[in-house]
């Protein structure tokens, strides 16, 4: 068990060995937290600004994915703003300086942000799933968009409320610390619930949705390339039937060669765009899976065993969680091109098939 005189409760509720934190230099803590905070602010504010700017250019705003991405950016900002400054203050002062109200608000707020971020990633995957597999129902999502986002935040709040309720200030050697006050069994059960909501359930849902999206796009590409080839071939045969008998075979061969060449161009172009989407989907899943996993494992281990965890590992695990808030705007800023890529796929097929 962790000695009560050496514990702090960090921004997501995990017990951390305060005496071991000195093994990582204060300068490195500052550099890491300030870098994460700076890049997260720049990236997510830029992302929100670009979405708002894009919305103003349109008279009728139907940018559904943009609103979901903006919601994710807000979650990212909430996470880093409620975590990094608090961590820096605790490192500098050596105790929790924000009082009882701060104890009940700051730590739960960062946990709410993590849950909301996971739910936002599910909403984005679901939005893309509907756009590809049910395009005629896509814009109907606009009616429910705000309600779905609000419900996701209410779910996050309701899950974190018991954790915030149990937090309280404990004075140890004359210094205040923000700690939980429930039984070990309840703490373990709650940690499992948080793991399921933040990681265990969202990850497979996101993986399945993006796999089905890519599978559908790939299937559509193959079917449209085949139709394009048949269209060219039919056109060539019709043109051949109108020529003289002496020129018939030669004309058909030329048209067939032209058909194959054009179909190869269609295939290369559509494959290029499909692979671009696949790379985006892989990046989304990998960043979520890798950067969120260490913190989840650490949290479950500490809560279930009550054993002390190497603080270097704990610190790096939380840095990785914060880093996801830096990488998300990069990935989803690029992923705003998703509708354009879909449009290019449709336009390239139409151009080569019906010209």
Automatic annotation (TrEMBL):
Q: Does the keyword Lipid metabolism apply?
A: no
Q: Which PROSITE patterns match?
A: G_PROTEIN_RECEP_F1_2 (PS50262)
Assigned keywords, A-Z: G-protein coupled receptor, Membrane, Receptor, Transducer, Transmembrane, Transmembrane helix
Task: Tell me which Pfam families the record gives.
Answer: 7tm_1
Q: Which residues cross the membrane?
A: 28-47, 68-85, 105-126, 146-165, 189-214, 275-293, 313-334
> Cross-referenced InterPro entries, in alphabetical order?
GPCR_Rhodpsn, GPCR_Rhodpsn_7TM
Localization, UniProt: Membrane
Looking at the keywords, is ATP-binding present? Answer: no
Topology in the lipid bilayer: Multi-pass membrane protein
Q: What is its main location?
A: membrane
Protein's UniProt name: Orexin receptor type 2 isoform X2
Q: Which organism is it from?
A: Hydra vulgaris (Hydra)
């Amino acid at each position: 068990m962790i000695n009560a005189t050496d514990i702090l409760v960090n921004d997501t509720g995990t017990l951390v060995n305060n005496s071991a934190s000195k093994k990582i230099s204060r300068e490195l803590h500052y550099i890491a937290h300030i870098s994460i905070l700076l890049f997260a602010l720049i990236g997510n504010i830029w992302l929100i600004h670009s979405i708002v700017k894009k919305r103003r250019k349109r008279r009728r705003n139907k940018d559904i994915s943009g609103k979901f991405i903006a919601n994710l950016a807000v979650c990212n900002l909430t996470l880093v703003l409620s975590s990094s400054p608090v961590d820096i203050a605790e490192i500098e002062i050596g105790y929790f300086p924000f009082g009882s109200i701060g104890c009940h608000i700051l730590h739960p707020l960062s946990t709410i942000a993590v849950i909301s971020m996971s739910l936002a990633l599910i909403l984005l995957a679901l939005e893309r799933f509907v756009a590809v597999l049910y395009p005629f129902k896509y814009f109907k999502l606009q009616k429910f968009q705000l309600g779905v986002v609000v419900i996701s935040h209410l779910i996050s709040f309701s899950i974190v409320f018991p954790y915030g309720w149990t937090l309280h200030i404990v004075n140890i050697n004359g210094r205040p610390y923000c700690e939980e006050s429930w039984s070990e069994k309840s703490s373990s059960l709650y940690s499992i619930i948080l793991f399921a909501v933040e990681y265990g359930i969202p990850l497979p849902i996101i993986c399945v949705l993006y796999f089905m999206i890519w599978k559908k796009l790939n299937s559509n590409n193959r079917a449209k390339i085949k139709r394009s080839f048949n269209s060219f071939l039919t056109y060539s045969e019709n043109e051949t039937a109108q020529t003289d008998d002496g020129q018939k075979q030669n004309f058909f061969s030329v048209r067939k060669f032209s058909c194959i060449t054009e179909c190869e161009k269609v295939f290369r172009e559509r494959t290029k765009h499909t692979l671009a989407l696949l790379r985006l989907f892989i990046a989304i899943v990998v960043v979520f899976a890798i950067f969120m996993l260490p913190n989840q494992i650490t949290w479950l281990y500490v809560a279930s065993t009550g054993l002390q965890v190497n603080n270097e590992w704990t610190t790096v695990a939380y840095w990785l969680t914060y880093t996801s808030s830096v990488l998300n705007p990069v990935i989803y800023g690029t992923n705003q091109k998703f509708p354009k890529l879909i449009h290019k796929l449709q336009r390239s097929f139409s151009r080569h098939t019906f010209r």
